[in-house]
Amino acid sequence: MNTSEITIYKSEDGRTEIQVKLENETVWLNQYQLEELFQTNRTSINRHISNIYKSRELEKQSTCAKIAQVQIEGDREIIRKISFYNLDVIISVGYRVNSKRGTEFRIWANNVLKAYLIKGYAINERRLRQQNEQLRQLQESVKLLGNVLNYKTLSEDESVGLLKIISDYAYALDILDQYDYQTLEINETSGKETYRITYEEAILQIRKVKEVYGNSELFGNEKDDSFQSSISTIYQTFNGADLYPSIEEKAANLLYFVTKNHSFTDGNKRIAAFLFLYFLEKNRILFDQYGNKRIADNALVALTLMIAVSRTEEKEIMTKVIVNLINKRN
User: Is residue 180 exposed (0-12), middle (13-18) or buried (19+ Cβ within 10 Å)?
Assistant: First the structure.
């Protein structure tokens, strides 16, 4: 690790300024610096880091590095290896810390994220020169994602989900380019479903989710008959042919209708995302041939938010984007 240092964060009172190591286009802090940054004890920091790795939110191998440090103990110089954690861990800890400084950091992080998405400040200048075409596609994708930031303050999962669509889905950039030029088509889908979800089955599964996760009494309470309509609509036919012939098209429209119809007193977006995944799993296409989910959970959160803030006339293009993110090519 080199000795380059930059300032990443300065507290509101101006008394805490953290100098961080820069390597491989990310920043690194050790536990002592994390303790200073978030004004909490190392026991709490260690617990949060342990939970991050235990839940597999992040992989330890790529986000933690052991760096040799010289320490003075008495009259001796001792070389010890200290754990440093990269920016992914720093942000994840920042969204867990229950302190005034943690709150300040979350506000700061959301503002930085907004600047990243809308203005592109966090993109490396050298890459911009080398990848002008990719930048153009990125700028077009930001127009689609930017509205979400005006909709609500993002949680950690939602923020990461938005960035995942940009940074991890190279194929998604092509999809968003097609979106902008209105050339997006549905291809390489899985064909007709083998499992047909019913209204009764959906209600049963919603009740199970409510029992397991202890949601409020209002969670899953139907306001009208629109949820039943959402289920039946994905199976509509015209002249004997399905309007939504493939599994992916039915799943995408299920996510769209349940999100948009606001059929429940509480939990509409959570229910929509859950049923979307449930439908894909029952039809055996939730995972690809390597056992990975076709769409990451955080990306699903971002897509559900995008549906929520989209206009009615954008329905067709929104569902096409979803289909293209879960089809066989992805």
Answer: middle
Q: How far apart are the first and last CA of the chain?
A: 35
Note the helical H segments in 152-198.
156-167, 170-180
Model pTM score: 0.49
Nearest to 167 by CA among 96, 87, 247: 87
Q: Which two tokens stand for residue 184?
A: 């997006």
Encoded tokens for 102: 């943690």
For the stretch 149-170, pLDDT in tens is 555 555 555 555 555 554 444 4
Which DSSP category does 192 fall into? S
Radius of gyration of the chain (CA): 23
DSSP letter for each residue of 239-268: TTEESS-SHHHHHHHHHHHHHHH--BSB-H
Total residues belonging to the chain? 330
* Residue 74 region by backbone torsions, left for phi larger than 0, else alpha for psi between -120 and 50, else beta: left
* Residue ranges in the chain modelled with pLDDT below 50: 1-9, 117-129, 131, 135, 137-138, 166-173
Tens digit of each residue's pLDDT (9 = 90 or more) over 247-276: 999 999 999 999 999 999 988 999 999 999
> In whole angstroms, how far apart are CA 266 and each of 12, 193, 217, 233, 241?
36, 29, 9, 22, 35
Q: What's the token pair of residue 165?
A: 């669509």
